[in-house]
Amino acid sequence: MSHAHRPDLRSSLAAILSVLALILLLPAASGAHGHHHHGHKHHGHHHHGKGKRLTVMTQNLYLGSSLQPALAAQTPEEFVEAVARIYATVQYTNFPARAEAIADAIEAKKPDLIGLQEVTKWTTEGISPPPGYDFLAILEAALAERGLHYTAASISHNANIGPAPLALPGCIAPGPTITCAVTLEDRDAILVNDDRHGLTWSNPQSGRYAAQQEVVSPVGPLSFDRGWAGIDAKLRHKPFRFVNTHLETEESPLVQQEQAAEFLAGPGKGGTVVATGDFNSASDGSTTTSYAQLTAPGKFRDVWDEELLGAGSSCCQESNAIPQLAPGQLNNPASTLATRIDLILSRGSARSSGNQAELIGDTPFQAEPPFWLSDHAGVFAVLRLK
Predict the structure, then answer these.
(1) Taking the alpha carbons of 107, 108, 110, 116 in that order, is the dihedral positive or negative?
(2) Can you give the pTM of this predicted structure?
(3) Which residues of the chain have pLDDT under 50?
């Protein structure tokens, strides 16, 4: 294991900046190196079927912190302090507790297919490091505890950044020497309900967009991969494709809009497709044109009908920093959801009635922080394959 010493702080700056810049871009994180898997078919366990009624959920899990401490940092020492504050906030926002609430929501609805974004993996190392968090493994365990059977059918492996020095209590030795480090991996994932009779899937794949945002930093440009994951599926022999993605943030509108165009020309193209994701484009058109591109005539239909269902705001819970923590610690007791960027889209024979959709996690799940299961609300919808 490698230890980061103070004389090596300059050489560690690239890793630190990478972690921090990634988190900055991650109120909506993602990206993907294309990992193509050998397809296989999974047959659901049998119980009473529901015809060609397909239930779908999308949820951004939230990596657990924002980057605000890094924005004011002017020196390597300040960046190291920022990394520590960010990871302390990840600990404070307590994904294991949030995963229990997310699993409760999944248990209540038992969606056939789930698209997840920011399926983060924090890996710590060194001498007596703080615990790491594999969000996928934690959520899978919470689902299994409830007797639910979901398979991670396709995963896009996006950013993998670090290890960066982690100067938390217990990780600083005389010298001073930082004896711990942290690595951040970002993923998107598709979960399939194994208990849905008549639902089969095959051909898991993922890919990376050609358009990617680069961030200028003191150590040179940093690129953030974003991409998509998909599977081929059949519901009672009716074929469709299910895809999940997480586009660039609204702070980089041109890159995001190029990614939306790539999505339409690639994994979202043709036939019967159901798509989930954090598209980072406000449905009212106030930020970028991506939503309009996706829902243009002949493209996707949005399952959320604002005339019937209201605004449906799904982003984002904003909270102020408390001492030693970064913003984004989910301690705001009143919701601050203000825009609708988390979408379930369909094309071809997959259709929604327009009023069978609802938000998930838009009310507090407990009486103390973290109040919210994520900084995003999820969306659940019922579709039919006609």
Answers:
(1) negative
(2) 0.87
(3) 1-49, 217-220
